[in-house]
Design goal:
heterodimer; A: 495 residues; two-stranded antiparallel ribbon; 1% strand; B: mainly alpha; 74% helix; flat
């Protein structure tokens, strides 16, 4: 208890408070702009922390991390251009809500859920960080393979209108994911001796093309016939959820946060996988109204809770074991070392105040998301007042900057352009761009984990079934894939 | 229906090409790596071809007509869309030659014009303000790399970002 009180004193003081506000706002702006990332925001903050005491410095970075994770949803909802990879799943229902004139409500849902997810994971971390970190270490290739499949299972919902086409879209995404150097034995695959293809195709580039550019093309052909600009004389104002409204959807909040915390703890899994799995789990409810993919609020709550809960989750292995739980956590770990702290079991013993202060900072940053959210979203909301010819060209320009800045390469811009056209045709023929991205994101983890497990098993894949955790996850994945069929049969049986 | 089948044939050709390439990948030196570099690609491409056949079979039976405005150049929507695709291609090509500032200024005027936006003053103000904000936020504040162009354009860009 003494340690918690000392941690509170370290965090709840005017300087830390101010830094958390600045960090959250800065993180949100960086998260919301395609082309900037949470990692970049933290790196940019790093020089300012050199002169601070370690706790204050880390508190600032944690606030940026929380703000960045939440900010990605703003452009996902308003422009169908995810600001961060973690916000992909938020576009599935967030953008349809904005199209229906409910942008403020969608943004409110996103901020509330992000805040809830962060607080949920921080509390879990405060209570059980060392225990959870040890459990996470038992995860091996077999379990990662299962997780990848669970992530893929959300095609059954995002492709609800045409399952076969969604399945083919996933397979095409998986195929694109195999381009580049095979990370198991270094074989060059489908790169045709092009140096730019050796590193593979970045899913953020594909995402900008297939989501943002394709959507602009769709709107160009339609905007003269209907109002697609979401123009409104009113300011886009974030509409926060009331407690009673939250209580009605409490299951989605808990499910999303639970998935996010667990996936966040697992080293290298990260917020994007967490949000996709949470969305997949949530959208198994086929009787939901409105349907998932057509603006269901729960389709925003689950992924937003999940990827922000993954922030807290990813801090566990980073701090207690010295193994980063996500790419952003790896940057924070680097910052720790610059400050002179070595994350790992010793940190837990020697700096218990530091550990608790970080989790308390997470909670405070999550509460301040409401203030940051109000300010940043109202500024971004102005964009929607633009006539569509201006808004469309602005989205394309932002997309070009986002794609180019990934690797300072025109190759990525060309990939974005190509996927803009492919995405347009996919939309027309009812293939699923979301499923394509899903396959591309999860392809690497699925293939590599499967092959690693087979190698560990000396040529046998039985380890996938004999490891209890892996077998359980695989059963869950199978259930998630077959849920639409099972639920239909069940409903028929009841009738 | 016909256009969807043509689209499916194109996808099929791409997957077939992918499969042929996958079959030519070398096997792994590690005997425990049963799948090797080619195992996963071969499996998903065969699965893809089977699913594509099923989709195409359904498309044959379906009487649903798909409208693709981009392919109807005799309509205003179709022309507008194709012009925008070409404009984006030109923008990307120009970025590498005249740099970010000039090409973005031109694109942000040309693109809305091609969509029938005719308020010239607003268009120019929008183009200048947007380009300035993008250069300041990305290029100057956050040090995000922006295209610089070649020769004199490159040298000039260093004076701004």
């Amino acid at each position: 208890m003494d340690i918690i009180i000392q941690s509170l004193v370290a965090v709840v003081n005017p300087i830390s408070f101010l830094l958390i506000v600045i960090g959250v706002l800065f993180g949100m702006v960086c998260g919301a702009l395609p082309g900037l990332s949470t990692s970049m925001a933290i790196i940019l903050c790093l020089p300012f922390t050199y002169s601070m005491d370690p706790i204050t410095g880390i508190v600032l970075m944690v606030a940026v991390y929380v703000g960045g994770a939440s900010g990605g949803s703003i452009s996902s909802i308003l422009l169908k251009t995810p600001g961060t990879p973690e916000a992909v799943a938020t576009t599935f229902d967030g953008y349809p809500m904005a199209q229906q004139g409910k942008a403020g409500e969608a943004l409110g849902l996103a901020v509330t859920s992000s805040s809830f997810g962060t607080i949920f994971s921080a509390i879990i971390m405060l209570l059980a960080a060392p225990l959870l970190a040890k459990a996470a270490l038992t995860f091996q290739s077999a379990e990662y393979f299962g997780l990848g499949l669970v992530g893929l299972s959300c095609i059954s919902s995002i492709g609800a209108k045409n399952q076969l086409k969604a399945f083919l879209s996933v397979l095409i995404g998986l195929m694109i994911g195999t381009i580049g150097i095979d990370s198991i034995n270094g074989t060059e695959r489908f790169a045709f001796e092009q140096p730019s293809l050796l590193n593979g195709i970045n899913y953020i580039t594909v995402m900008i093309g297939a989501f943002a550019i394709a959507e602009v093309y769709n709107n160009i052909e339609e905007y003269r016939h209907r109002d697609t600009s979401l123009r409104s004389t009113e300011k886009v104002k974030i509409k926060l959820l009331k407690f009673t409204e939250m209580a009605k959807m409490w299951t989605s909040f808990i499910r999303g946060s639970f998935v996010g915390t667990i996936i966040g703890i697992i080293p290298a899994a990260g917020g994007s996988i967490a949000s996709l799995i949470a969305y997949g789990w949530e959208s198994n409810n086929k009787n939901a109204t409105p349907k998932f993919g057509e603006g269901n609020p729960r389709g925003i709550i689950a992924p937003e809770c999940a990827h922000n809960a993954a922030v807290g989750g990813s801090m566990v292995p980073t701090l207690t074991l010295g193994i980063p739980g996500s790419p952003v956590a790896a940057v924070i770990m680097g910052a720790f070392m610059i400050i002179g702290l070595t994350p790992g079991p010793l940190l837990l013993k020697e700096q218990p105040i530091m550990l608790n202060a970080i989790f308390l900072a997470l909670i405070l940053a999550a509460l301040l998301l409401f203030i940051g959210g109000r300010f940043v979203t109202s500024q971004f909301g102005h964009i929607l007042k633009l006539p569509y010819p201006l808004l469309g060209s602005l989205i394309v320009t932002l997309g070009v900057v986002g794609a180019y800045s990934l690797k300072n390469s025109f190759y990525d811009v060309m990939i974005m352009f190509a996927f803009g056209i492919i995405g347009y045709f996919f939309d027309k023929f009812k293939y699923s761009n979301a499923a394509l991205i899903l396959g591309l994101i999860l392809g690497e983890i699925i293939e590599n984990s499967l092959r690693k497990q087979i190698i560990i098993g000396d040529g046998s894949a039985m380890g996938l079934l004999t490891r209890p955790v892996s077998a359980t996850i695989l059963v869950l994945a199978a259930l998630a894939f077959l849920w639409p069929v099972i639920s239909k049969k069940f409903e028929k049986g009841v009738q | 229906m016909v256009i969807e089948i043509v689209f499916n044939i194109l996808i099929g050709l791409v997957i077939l090409f992918y499969l042929v390439q996958a079959l030519q990948l070398p096997s792994s030196d590690n005997p425990a790596d049963v799948l090797g570099a080619s195992g996963f690609p071969i499996t998903i491409s065969i699965l893809g071809l089977i699913v594509l056949l099923m989709i195409t079979f359904r498309a044959f039976k379906s009487k649903h007509k798909v409208e693709i405005p981009m392919l109807h150049l005799n309509t205003i929507d179709g022309r507008m869309l194709v012009i925008n695709v070409l404009l984006l291609a030109a923008y990307i090509a120009l970025l590498d030659v005249i740099g970010f500032i000039l090409s973005t200024l031109i694109y942000l005027v040309a693109c809305p014009l091609s969509m029938g936006f005719r308020k010239s003053l607003l268009l120019i103000v929008f183009s200048v303000i947007t380009t300035t904000v993008l250069v300041v936020v990305f290029g100057i504040v956050f040090y995000v790399p922006l295209p610089r162009g070649v020769n004199v354009f490159r040298e000039l860009s260093y004076m701004v970002y």
